[in-house]
Design goal:
By secondary structure, the chain is mainly alpha-helical. It has one domain. It has five helices and no strands. The radius of gyration is 19 Å and the shape is elongated. Belongs to the CARF family. It holds the Pfam family XTBD.
């Protein structure tokens, strides 16, 4: 019967992951590519248990969604943010692997090339 218990536990785990993924899907932006959404969804799902809204509201989920957008915008669009905020989201995203990231040149780097 141990095998049956293990199979039930695996099914429960798969069901929970599927529910979390379905829940997160509602937050996908229409302009996000599949690669961008996959990375942002991983960020959201990683911290969803910590940022669930309490029964009285509180906006914790909104905070998580905002942090995920800051991270994705920095990664995929080259947006810059306050150093403390950027440090926080980069630490939160540690271990999330994204392939073929675009390379951005900062304004300072461009100015150095012009002044040479």
């Amino acid at each position: 019967m141990v095998g049956g218990d293990a199979a039930a536990a695996v099914e429960e785990l798969v069901s929970g992951v599927r529910q979390a993924t379905d829940f997160a899907e509602q937050f996908r932006s229409y302009s996000e590519s599949e690669k961008q959404w996959k990375a942002r969804m991983e960020f959201i799902l990683r911290y969803l248990p910590d940022y669930r809204d309490p029964p009285d509201g509180g906006g914790r989920l909104d905070q998580l969604l905002s942090l995920s957008m800051v991270w994705a915008n920095h990664l995929f669009l080259g947006c810059s943010y306050n150093k403390d905020l950027l440090d926080k989201v980069m630490e939160m995203a540690d271990g999330i692997e994204v392939e073929d990231l675009p390379q951005f040149t900062t304004r300072s780097e461009l100015m150095k090339k012009v002044n040479r």
